[in-house]
Structure formats: structure tokens, C-alpha cells
Amino acid sequence: MRAVALLSGGLDSTLAIRVILEQHIEVEALNFVSLFCTCTPKSSSCSASRSAVRQLGIDLKVVNTSEEFLAVVKNPKHGYGRNLNPCLDCRIMMFRRAREYMDEAGASFIVTGEVLGERPMSQRRMAMKLIEKEAGLEGLVVRPLSARLLAPSIPEREGWIDREKLLGIQGRSRKPQIELARSYGISDYPCPAGGCRLTDPSFAALMRDLMIHVPAFSVNDANLLKAGRHFRLSPRTKAVVGRNEDDNRLLLTLSGAGDRLMEVVDVRGPLTLVRGTADVEELLMAGGITTRYSKLRHSSHVRVVVSDKQERQKEVIEVIPADEQVVESMKIGADGSQTAA
Fold it and tell me: Which of the listed residues 219, 275, 313, 334 has the most CB atoms within 10 Å of its CB?
């Protein structure tokens, strides 16, 4: 008997696979790459999943669903959660892809690390049933951590797996999973609970601003939201100011045709990326914001170099450091005050 398991790299999915492996079921892990994972770069979904499969001794297939997931974020059939998280539609998309791969791999059912009641939108009993139905997986999803609290799946009813060896965990407490991990000797799980940036109010505000001003936004545009401080200069232009060296490097990597890069002359400081059709006034404002976060914030006039990524267009402009109130008024915040067109 063969199963395909959805593996995030987090603790729940790792434990779910371990429970199924103990029943001598052959398992292959499936990891969906998402640019919205809240894990740190060193413990990203993909790398955490690779670490988990090494511990479990199973194969892993990584699937990039970035473009497909952005389409879901833009227009979710079942709406958003508390912020901009389309949890139901996201799960349906992943389950559909898992169903396709299950057929390709000759597997008989899907395994997930879902825990009843752990997530308010997608792990309610009715939500689980809806997701299964719309993904064409009714009865074919086994949730080993909460199975004893749910209606028996087809694999349980048919005796492919022993329901009595499955668990009855529910709720948001992590204690049962941590205790189970300890009993299995599992200690390396960098993303214990997993998570999505779209559930964070501040990140959701950035995404909402992007959706309003750039409806046809790209993966690059969405990745840009993960770096720096964001400022809406006008409906057509925004500036992103790096907070540290990591931000600066990411901004440089993500910069493309049409973007302008700004740095204060002669002192180390933030890199600013200006995206959109910036006019002279907007470039001066972006330069003023850049200097506001540099060591020259109290100077009367500051020189700022403006260029593109290839430095084919390079000039030095003189700016006045932006007033703090002006900076805050343009900053895209969790209240969404800067999302109006």
C-alpha cells in the first residue's frame, strides 16, 4: 500500500507521516513551495522538509505553485480569513495537486498533518469536508493526528490502516505533538507550527496595497513585500527602503527593468528600490526618505546616487531628509491607511 503525504517541514506533518510509517505503509512526501511561508530562510519550507524526510527515511517531491497560488490570493472563491489569507482556497489548490500526483504515483490515499481545531479557518470539521469534496478526495484523506475524532476514511474502513493506532489530538495546544515528538526522538523541526505571512496584519496591508495599485502583480512584486519598509509615493510609484544588509541584498536581487536604486553618497546606509513611473518630485521624496534612515538624517542637504541595476543610468541628486511625519504618512501600515488609490 502506498500513500502520498503533504509535508510542510513542520512538526504536525512530520508526526503524521511517522504514525503512518509505523503501519508499514509506503509513503512519499509532497512539499508545496510558497513564497508566503513564515519560516526563516535557514528553515524554509523546502529545506525543513528535506530535513524531515532524512529523519523519516522517505522520498520527497517539491512542487512550485507560486504562480497558481498568486491567482488564488487575487480571487479566492471562499474569501479571506481575518487578514488576507485565502486558507480554504489554498488548501483546495494543494489537495487538487496532491490528487493529481497521487494518481501519477500509483498511491491509494493522501496523508496530512492537520489537527482538528488547530487552525480556525481550514481545520474545522466542515471545512475539512469541503476541501476534500472540492479537491475530488472525499474519503481519501487520512489525518493521523486527529483521525479518532473524525469519521473513518476509506483507508480506515477498508482496513488498509488500523484506526486504533491513529490519534485523537485536537485544539491549538502544541503539548501533545511535542510530547509525541519526544517519544519518537524527533527534535529537529524548525517550524513547529508552520504559518503564512498573509495572516499577519502588517504583511496583509502590504499585499492589499499591491493588489489595489498593481492588480496584475507578479511573483517578483510579491517577493518584494518581504524586504524593507514600504512607502506609497503615489498610486503609480512606491519606494522600499532596506532595513539591514540582508534587505539591501534582496532589494538588489529583485530589482529589474524600470526600477531605480538609491543610496546615500559617502556613508553606509540603506538601499532604496523605487518601483513605478517615478517623476522628479517622487525621486526627490524617495531620496529624502532614504536619508531619513541614514546617519545623515539630521543634515540639511544630502547627496544621493540614483541608478539602475546595471548602473547604465547613474546620477547624483541633492535631497533634504524627509520629515518624520511625512515619512509616517507615506508608510504602508497594518491599518491599510496607505492603500487608497
Answer: 275
